[in-house]
Each structure stands twice: as C-alpha cells, then as structure tokens.
Amino acid sequence: MFELPQPPEYIRSLKPYVPGKPIEETQREYGLKRVVKLASNENPFGPSPRAVAAARKSLKESHRYPDSAAYSLRKALSTHLSTAHRTVAPNELLLGNGSNELIDLLIRTYSVSGDAIATSQAAFVAYRVCAQAHGVRVLEAPLTEDMRFDLGAILDSVRRDSRVKLVFIANPNNPTGTHNTSLEIREFLESLAKIRRGSVICVLDYAYWEYVSSHRGKEAIPDPLVLQLEFPNVVVLRTFSKVYGLAGFRMGYAIGSAALLSYCERIRMPFNLATPSMAAAEAALADKAHVRRAVSENKRAMIFWQKELSRLSIPYWPSQGNFLLVNTRVGMGMSGPEVFEKSLKLGVIFRPVANYGLDDALRISMGTMLENRIAVRALERLKG
Ligand SMILES: Cc1ncc(COP(=O)(O)O)c(C=O)c1O
C-alpha cells in the first residue's frame, strides 16, 4: 500500500494559469465550423513568412542540440536593441522559453520560500503563479480607481515587508491595458532605489511595447532601456509572442545588468530554446515591414472597436496593447463569464478575467477586420 505524497500547501492552493479557449475545442463542443478567437492577444496576421522559412530551414538540424548560448540570436538582439542612447551588449540579455520562463527564472534566482514579490491586483497572472509555485508570497496592491497600478501603494508594501525581493510592473498591464506614465515610473524607481540600498529588483514587463502609441507628453510610457542607464536594478521583459506573431515558438528575452542576469543563467535549463524558435525569432527581427504592418493594423482595429463599443454603449478602459478590457456589467448587464459563455455559442472566443478579480469585465484581443466585425455582431446580438 502506498499513500500518495502531498505537495506543500502553497502548491495545493495554487490556481493554475488558464489559457484562452482553443479554437478546435470550441468547434468540437459547439459543433461550429467557423470560430473567431480574440482571446490570447496574439497577432491575428500570423508570423512573418521569413520567420517561418527560417524555422523550416533549421529543421534539418533537428538531430543536433540547440546552441545553448544562442550566440546568433543574442547578437541580432543586441544590434536590434542598441541605439545612440544605449548599447545593449549580448551578455545583458537572458533568453527564455517565452517571457513566462524569465518571470520564473527571476523569481527562483532572487527569492527563497517565505520571501515576497510586490505587484498590483489584476497584474499579469504569471507573476502570482510563478511566485506561489516556489512558496514566495505575493503582495498585491489595489488598483487605482482608473484601473492602473498604484505605484505608491506598491512602494508602501515594499517598505513594510523587508522580504520583498522583486517588484513586477507590466506596462501596459494585461488584462487591463492601462499603463503608468514616465513621471510615475521615474518617481517610483527613485523611491525604490532608496529602500534597502536599491537591492529590490524592479521587473518592467514590456510585452506590448511595440504596440504602444503613447510616446510623448504627460501620458507617455517611458523607454525602459533609457531608465536602465540610471537604475541598474531594472530588468526589462520583452517577447516574440505578440507583435512578432511567434507565440507558438515560445521566445522571450530579458534585458538587464550582466551581473544580475548571470545568476539566472546558472539555473536556466541548458537547452531551453528550440533551434527552430531561435531561427524564427532572428528572422522575425529582420522583417521590420511585418512588424510595421501589425502595428498599423492594430491601430486600425483599435479605432474600429472603440467606435463600435461606444455605439453599443459598452464602456472600455484605454489600452496601449493589442486588446481592450470592456465593462460588460455596465454595458450589457451581464458578468464577463456570462458574455464569454454566450459568445462561444455564436462562435466567438473572448477572454473572461474573473480569475483577476474582474468579474464584470471581458478582454477582447484585436483581430483582423473580418474577425472584429463578426465579434461586434455577436456582442450586438447578445445585447439584444
Ligand atoms: C504582460 C505579459 N507579460 C508576459 C506575457 C507572456 O508572454 P510569453 O511567455 O508568451 O512571452 C504576456 C502574455 O500574455 C503578457 O501579457
């Protein structure tokens, strides 16, 4: 007789990450031919054909282990990221199996069970999942009234709890789409530098940076690589999953101090990046026209959705990403999960965000114009 072992309490109570509902599953369950998925903030135009060709070409080397040092991609990223204001050396990069792996690596490298991370309520959920998986506590400051991170409240929690080792700020955040301005982030980093001799790491998650349209004025989102010149405790996260349309290849990267990231390198699995993924990412970097098109189509979709949501009197929060968070309670008299379930029957997959404590909201990713029109029609029908 064996008694099944029990994992620690923090694993037993962990609520796993719930991904967007897959298209095939929805087709099967509802007997539908056409299903539109606007649920995972993917690039609806897909990857660059050059990325696909590069991945395909790399397949004949599949019997070889990948280049664990990612020499070629590192070099390409270093060139891509370096500007007149800032050089990013190859050893200031850490590459991961999606930026999700980097979140996990940073937490595991810089905290032990019983330590804490500080972030906001309704912050991207991977911070919580990765922390809890290692017995690391999560301090979530409440959102401001306008659904943004309250950086002052986050600072207070860092001051109060001497075991906070990392702060996670998504800018813009997912699922809210809202952001913190240059002034706010700068003030925050200045104050954070004064706590425990600047030893708390600030992770700025810029998964949606390429989509950001607010670069000037009071509402601007700061360039994180420029901030790093002054604040070496800042680690920036970027990904190939969004604007580059390579979510399926799982490629993300962190930019930060070489010394700081070198410790994460020590615990990284030797072959965490697949050869086709690295080849696709490098080719995608070179296809700037593909990225430009994705950004301009996203802008077009965003304008369309904002106009249609206003016409349907469904309020939404301003977004700097490739998605919008809408208020279904006020706009449709229903909870987010209710609208999600009803939309499935009409062949449209949105993203419920009740797991973020946002029961009355729904997240909508920007699709192609055809997908957007189909999805608007579904909401219109549900509104009656
Ligand atoms: C804010 C944010 N960070 C990180 C990620 C993770 O991206 P990936 O692991 O695909 O690079 C996402 C994905 O949705 C995100 O929204």
User: Which structural class do the helices and strands define?
Assistant: alpha/beta
Shape: globular
Poorly predicted runs are none
- Compute the number of helices: 15
Question: Could you characterize the architecture of this molecule?
Answer:
The longest helix has 24 residues, at 288-311. The protein is globular and about 60 Å long. The chain has helices spanning 9-12, 23-30, 49-58, 71-81, 98-110, 126-133, 151-160, 182-193, 224-230, 258-267, 275-286, 288-311, 328-332, 336-345, 369-383, and strands spanning 36-37, 93-96, 116-120, 137-141, 164-170, 201-205, 234-239, 252-255, 323-327, 348-349, 351-352, 361-365. It contains 15 helices and 12 strands. It has 2 domains: 9-47 and 289-383, Aspartate Aminotransferase, domain 1 (Alpha-Beta Complex), CATH 3.90.1150; 49-287, 3-Layer(aba) Sandwich (Aspartate Aminotransferase, domain 2), CATH 3.40.640. Strands 2-8-7-6-5-3-4 form a 7-stranded mixed beta sheet, with helices on both faces. Helix 8 (182-193) links the parallel strand 5 and strand 6. The model has no long low-confidence stretch (mean pLDDT 96). The chain is α/β, with parallel strands linked by helices. Pyridoxal-5'-phosphate (PLP) binds next to helix 5.
